[in-house]
Amino acid sequence: MSEWQTRNILIPDDHPTAAGHFPGRPIVPGALLLDTVVASIADAQGGIMIRNAKFLRPLRHGTALQLRWQETGSALFRFECLGPDGVVLAGMLATGVKP
Question: What are the tens digits of pLDDT across the range 38-62?
Fold first, then answer.
């Protein structure tokens, strides 16, 4: 296994999804969070396959997160998004997947 790599993430309060994703009590859509994870980890070569993802806590817009990931095998990555109250999202993805 490789060392953990990290990146800070912030989906701002004024992101367009805040207006329509549960008006009055907005949370960051899971698809937006997964897209941010994939863009941070994967290189531009080859496809991506999300092997599994578990959403453990809702995330409010404007909440700072730390994304951390490590390679656990050839082109296989474990990732976690850590918020102030613990893990928000955890999962595995594979890179270099052929369509």
Answer: 998 876 556 889 999 999 999 999 9
- The CATH number given to whatever domain includes residue 54 is 3.10.129.10
Amino acid letter at 54?
A: K
Place of tokens 């805040």: 18
Report the distance separating Cα 23 and Cα 4, nearest Å: 36
Sign of CA dihedral 7, 8, 11, 12: negative
Domain span at 33: 5-97
pLDDT in tens, 10-41: 999 999 989 887 778 889 999 999 999 999 88
Start-to-end CA span in the chain (Å): 26
Which regions of 1-99 does DSSP assign to beta strands (E)? 5-10, 47-55, 64-73, 76-83, 86-97
Structure tokens at 85: 């109250």
